[in-house]
C-alpha cells in the first residue's frame, strides 16, 4: 500500500528510517521530534505533533518532501498511513450540527471562502475517500482528517464549528 521514509535533516540528509504501518509514538523507536524531511511512496501519510495521532497535523502525499515545514520541523511524534480507497471521493457537508439544515455534496477540492458556505458548516458524512478540512482557505489554522464512513455530527468536537473554509480530498499514490 505504501511507505514513508523519514530523515533526520532537511533534503534527505542524516539518519533515515522506513515505515510501512502506523506508529503511535515515535519515542518507542527513538525517532521522536527529529524529522525534517520525508519521502512517501504510495498512499498518503499524516504526521502528528503528539503521540496517538493527536495535535497539529500535516499531510504528506506521494513524493519527496525536502522540508516538512517550519510548523512540523522536529515536532513529529506519530505517523499514520491513509488506507482508504481515495478514488472517487465524496463528502456531504451540513449547515448545522446533527446533519441538519442545508447540505452540500463535495467531490473535489473546494474553497468555501469564495461562496455561501464559508464558516457555516457544522457537521459532515464521508461517503468515500479521506479529506483534509481546513479552517482557513490557504490550508492553515485548525486542520482535520475526515475519513471514509465517518459521520461527525458536531464540529464543536474538533473546534471547527462554523469555521470551515477549505477542504480537499487526499490524493491516491501512483503505486496504489
Automatic annotation (TrEMBL):
**GO annotation, biological process:** lens development in camera-type eye; visual perception
- Pinpoint the Beta/gamma crystallin 'Greek key' domain residues: 2-42, 43-83
Gene3D superfamilies recorded:
Crystallins
The family database entries (SUPFAM superfamilies) matched by this protein are listed as: gamma-Crystallin-like
Q: Which GO terms describe its molecular function?
A: structural constituent of eye lens
| SMART domains named in the record | XTALbg (SM00247)
Any keyword Repeat? yes
Instruction: Give the record's keywords alphabetically.
Output: Repeat
**What PANTHER family does the database record attribute to this sequence?**
BETA/GAMMA CRYSTALLIN, BETA_GAMMA CRYSTALLIN 'GREEK KEY' DOMAIN-CONTAINING PROTEIN
- Name the family: Belongs to the beta/gamma-crystallin family.
Protein name per its UniProtKB record? Beta/gamma crystallin 'Greek key' domain-containing protein
Amino acid at each position: 500500500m505504501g511507505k514513508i521514509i523519514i530523515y533526520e535533516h532537511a533534503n534527505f540528509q542524516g539518519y533515515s528510517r522506513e515505515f510501512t504501518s502506523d506508529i503511535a509514538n515515535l519515542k518507542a523507536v527513538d525517532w521522536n521530534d527529529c524529522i525534517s524531511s520525508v519521502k512517501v511512496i504510495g498512499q498518503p501519510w499524516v504526521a502528528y505533533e503528539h503521540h496517538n495521532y493527536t495535535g497539529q497535523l500535516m499531510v504528506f502525499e506521494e513524493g519527496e518532501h525536502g522540508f516538512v515545514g517550519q510548523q512540523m520541523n522536529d515536532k513529529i511524534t506519530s505517523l499514520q498511513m491513509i488506507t482508504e480507497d481515495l478514488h472517487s471521493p465524496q463528502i456531504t457537508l451540513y449547515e448545522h450540527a446533527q446533519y441538519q439544515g442545508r447540505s452540500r455534496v463535495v467531490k473535489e477540492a473546494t474553497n468555501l471562502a469564495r461562496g455561501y458556505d464559508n464558516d457555516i458548516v457544522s457537521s459532515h458524512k464521508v461517503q468515500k475517500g479521506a479529506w483534509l478540512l481546513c479552517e482557513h482557505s490557504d490550508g492553515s489554522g485548525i486542520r482535520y482528517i475526515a475519513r471514509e464512513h465517518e459521520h461527525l455530527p458536531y464540529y464543536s468536537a474538533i473546534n471547527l464549528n462554523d469555521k470551515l473554509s477549505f477542504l480537499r480530498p487526499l490524493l491516491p499514490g501512483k503505486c496504489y
